UniProtKB/TrEMBL annotation:
Complex and partners: Homodimer.
Coiled-coil zones: none
Gene3D superfamilies from the UniProt entry: 3.30.70.360, Zn peptidases (3.40.630.10)
One Pfam family from the record: Peptidase_M20
Record-linked PANTHER family: ALLANTOATE DEIMINASE-RELATED
Keyword Acetylation (UniProt): no
Protein name: M20 family metallo-hydrolase
Named cofactor requirement(s): Mn(2+)
Organism, scientific name: Luteolibacter soli
SUPFAM superfamilies referenced in this protein's UniProt entry, alphabetically: Bacterial exopeptidase dimerisation domain (SSF55031), Zn-dependent exopeptidases (SSF53187)
Amino acid sequence: MGLLHLSRELTMDGFEPALERLLARIEELGAITDTPGSLTRTFLSPANLQAARQVTAWMEAAGLKTEHAAGGTIRGILPGKDPSLPPLLLGSHLDTVIDAGKYDGALGVLIALAALEAAGPLDFPVHVLGFSDEEGVRFHATYLGSRACVGQLTDEMLAIRDANGISLGEALEREGWHEGASSFSYENSSSKGYVEVHIEQGRVLDELKEAVCGVSAICGQSRLSIKLLGQADHAGTTPMPLRYDALTGAAECILEAESLAVYNEGLVATVGKLDVKPGASNAIPGEVKFTLDFRHPDDAKRERLLANLLERFGVITKRRKLQLSWDLVQSNAAVPCSEALTGSLLDALEKHVRARFTIPSGAGHDAVMMSTVMPVAMLFVRCRAGLSHHPEEYAGPRDIAVALRVLVDFLQSVR
């Protein structure tokens, strides 16, 4: 089915050309990269700034007043019939992971612009934001764009350094988009709220064969570095009962984490990295370090389950005569989405899909930072096979059309 036919099934008036432009812009933006042959745009890279300039040009063509920060975040403002009213914020991020797909982040910015093109006059102002960094590839610190927009780029944050030893503050000074730059940020109660459209990055919608759904909360997250210390020894001469094998102990702990997550709904637990010493095929591992990523939409449950898991790790290591230690590397609280904004999104959603429902987001989003000063809501769009952070990441035109219609209906319902 052609895109023109597809859009006629779902649209009237200005919706059809807005959808066509949205789909074309996704492709055009997806070709802006620092690495020919794959898609990569990192904080303040040439492609990152080129993408920001391109989206700014599209905003201006749509009649929005634009501005940009030195850090590369862009903002387009549609004043509405009454510019004195608190604005509604829409948006997402323009940076990518390395060798990325073209929908993560970019869809949320471009669909916001398309929705304004299709919605017609609105009573209130709308701000469309394209954040310069959410993924945290360069500085290994996420949400740099949205942090700046809520006044949370602290001196401590400005001191963090990239792999080349350049601090965030130095990068902003030397590499920032200074020409014509302005400073903009949001404070408590200064807006109606922030709404972000994003691919799901999971398989729930794909399994349910639904185009879109609401988001109930962004999961809280704990990241730990865990160390098991045993005794390195000769693999051929040490009898099995006399071994203090740190790797087999770690394996049992990892399976314990998996089992806990399987039997507790909403919990996901992942060990993504192992460091084994001495790391020789003929040596019993004497030391193992592994990471633990632990997420749940309810902070109290996350903390209780994590305490239970660490207690179980202690039982395992004591039985195996291993030493156990851990460091909490990162802890982010869960972010509940606004019931009022989410309810309005779901009211718009149920006109176009079979089921009205929400799911929690296991991934972090710019909505995490924006929630510190305003209510937030999110709309998830089906991602084929749940594949994301990958060149084959894909959201179909039909699903994007449904999401655009939902966002337009939502905008027209906001008071």
